[in-house]
Amino acid sequence: MAKAYKCICCNKRAKPKDRRPLTDTVKNYLRRVLPAVDPTDSDVICFQCRVKSYKNAPKPRQCSDNISNDPDYQPQPSTSRQPFSPLSITLQIPSTIRSHSRCFICKRPGPKLISLPADGRLSAFIDHNIIISADSRCCPSHVYEGTLTETALKDMKTITETSQMNRTGVNDLLQKIRKLYQQQSRHLNFDNLSDADCQSLTKLNRAQFEDLYNHLFDKIKNTPNRSIKTSIGIFLCKLCSGMSNRLLSTIFGITKSSIRRAVSTVRHAFMRGFVPLYLGIDSVTRESLINEHTKPLAKKLFGNQEERLILVLDGTYIYINKSNNFQFQRRSFSLHKGRPLVKPMVVVTTTGHFLTIVGPYMSDGKNNDAAILNHMLKTNIDDIRGLLREGDVFVVDRGFRDALLLLKDLGINAEMPAIMLKGEKQLTTGEANASRLITKIRWVVESANARIKRFKYLDHVMPNSQLPFIGDFVRIVCAISNKYFPPLSSPDQVEQDELIAKKMLQQNEKENELKMLVEEKGLARKKTIWRPIEDCEVQGFPRLSDEQLSELTLGVYQLRLSSSYMQEHTTGNCDIKVHVHEQSLISAKLQSRHTSSRRYMLWIRHSEDMVESWYCQCKTGSRVVGMCSHIAAVVWFLSAGRYQQKESLGVRDWGKYLSDASAIRIDDSSSSESDSR
Questions:
Q1: What global pTM score does this model have?
Q2: How far does Cα 233 stand from its chain's mean position?
Q3: Is there a domain that residue 32 lies in?
Q4: Which of 41, 54, 231, 435 is such that its CA lies 20 to 30 A from the CA of 78?
Q5: What is the DSSP string of 444-481?
Q6: How far is it, in rounded angstroms, from Cα 270 to Cα 35?
Q7: What is the CA radius of gyration of the chain?
Q8: Among 573, 623, 628, which Cα is nearest to 600's?
Q9: Can you give the residue ranges of the SWIM-type domain (predicted)?
């Protein structure tokens, strides 16, 4: 039997044509890189290992005569290449085939095959526990941005359950994993962020963040410093926290310029692949707006016809820095707010769904809410007139009064709170009732604007360099709210909304009988003995639950202010005085929360079981559809608040921690001495 000559390096049988003897150069190199091997003249090496050994052998150094003539000089191994060693280590990790001629995924032959980059091979090992050899090649269609696509990972078939590696490959793999762990442990990384941390940083849970990633991943590139998920996380973290690029660079461990590029790239990706799907008139149909995004209460109060579209409009403010351009400085200065700002116009449905964002606009007198609405309709921005039909309803505030004529010409019904004429001090009962019907629906746009400002980047003063992108940021925030946040007002409360609408419409037709009684008997002019509310014995006032109080006020806003009104009473600075006219009728004086010199008188008629009627001298105090905040505060205290502990009001007096310049204590002894002199 013929003798088998095995290669001293790879231990494979060397065919006669590939068999090579060991030269002195190869022997010295093998003794240096493989200390356990002692090559002799009878050993052989295969052609491939011999070529690798010559490639990795150190080249002669260009040195001076003194060094080259030194008999003790030993050339050092080159560090430009990793030393070659045989595949002598077996790992219980699946691996793919090693082939230059066929794709290791689909097994198709070349010739147009490429090598997978080192980052892609490392990603496949970390995420899927598969070792891909550096010698393996694949089709270009399986690789995207240096990593294997999801389809390629699913189609990839491993050839063996073990992996053959040399010492150099294992060492390289360990070093790469160590470096990756150091990077991820020192700095924030969204590739492996927990659900709670993701919610805190981006206002989205992990599942929502992954869904957002699926919308944007094909429009953003991986970079050596940040992955696609990290780029999206940087953008959302900046929107939610309002942190500067310098601070974000410290948190994420990348340069400030890289942060700036990430924000710009993700913003463009949002505007191309996410915002058009969830914001804008083209993103939703008219039937969907009416059936899915219109509250039943609004349909009962203003709809009358099922096919009517009800929209709520209002402008919001984005504050900016003062500009050195004087013309722009004048046009961006708001006399109403007393500071420079720009105004996006927000259009929402009665459930809080953002329909479209128009602008932003300048903030001078030529760009008030009415002027912006006129511009929207006359120029047909976003084809808004194509969405509207005759008989549709716009719920607006008093700032849109100059646009009512245009809305009437277009056949659109405008619902706006009543305006007091010059010389009037109070709205009539009918005007106050009608205004309450409108505010019951219109509150949703104020909450929608507050939802925008929850993203602190839009709540802070923005630099003027970001002016071209303010509209994009607002639209991105609104699209995220439409997709991932719950509606501000649920459209599913049909029975409850029908009961509330029926009650409001019935009370809307009534007059305030208590107001007529007060005016007829002149109770406001009679001399009365006012007593603090806690010292006044109010007999027979009903004790009401939270549900009963909510039915009286037709909402929670007035009840939330009640504890703040009563806080002055609990701290000893009580300005709430009560007078009992008769057993079932009381009057009270209540301090205005806006003006120190103004106090309102109010009257409440009650029985032992319920509060029957009320009247207040404030602007909206004559309404019977609900009640004003002043009446609600007194009713809440007499029916529920006085039975609670003072600490349960939940209102702290922060003024005790501050100084008061008007509080100057004068020493009596020093003043008397000065008088004697």
A1: 0.69
A2: 11
A3: no
A4: 41
A5: HHHHHHHHHHTSHHHHSPBPGGGGGGHHHHHHHHHHHH
A6: 58
A7: 39
A8: 628
A9: 600-639
